[in-house]
Amino acid sequence: MAILRQGKTYWILAVKDFELSLQVPSLNSVPGGVKMACGSVVLAFLLWTSLQFGVKFSLTSPTNIQALNIPALSRTYNSYKTFASWPILYQQRSERSIQKATKLSGLPHVDDESINLSVKFSESNLGRETRMENNLIRSNTKVRQETPQHGQLIESYPSAEALRHGKNGLIATKASLYISHKHCQWYGVDDDECGAFVMSMEMNTTSLGDKCAAQYSSSASCSGKYRSIDGSCNHENHKAWGKVHTSYLRLLEPQYGDGIQEPRKPVRGKSLPSARLISTGMTKESDSEDTSKTLSLVQWTEFIEHDLVFTPATRMVHSGNPIMCCRQDGSFLAPRYIHPACMPISVPNNDPFYSKYRQRCMNYVRSLMAMRPDCHFGPAEQMNQATHHLDGSMIYGSTVEKAWALRTFANGGLSAELKNGREYLPRADKPLQQCQVSSNTSSCYKAGDLRVNLHPHLAIMHTLWLREHNRIVEKLALLNPHWDDDTLYQEARKIVIAEIQHITYDEWLPLVLGSRYTKKLGLRLRKTGFSSDFTESLNPSVSNSFATAGIRFRLSMMVGNIGLYDENRNTNKSLQLRNNFNHPEAIEESENLDSLVRGLATQTSQKSDLYYENDLIQMLYKDDGRFGMDALSLDVQRGRDHGLPGYNHYRKLCGLPPGRSFDGFLDVMSKSTVAKLKSLYAHPDDVDLLVGAMSEHVTDDSVLGFTFRCIIGEQMLRTKKGDRFFYDVPSQENSFTEAQLDEIRKSTLARVFCDNADDIKMMQPNVFVRPSKSNQLVSCSSTDDIKQPSLSPWKEFLVKSS
Question: Where is this region: Disordered (predicted)?
Answer without folding.
Answer: 259-290
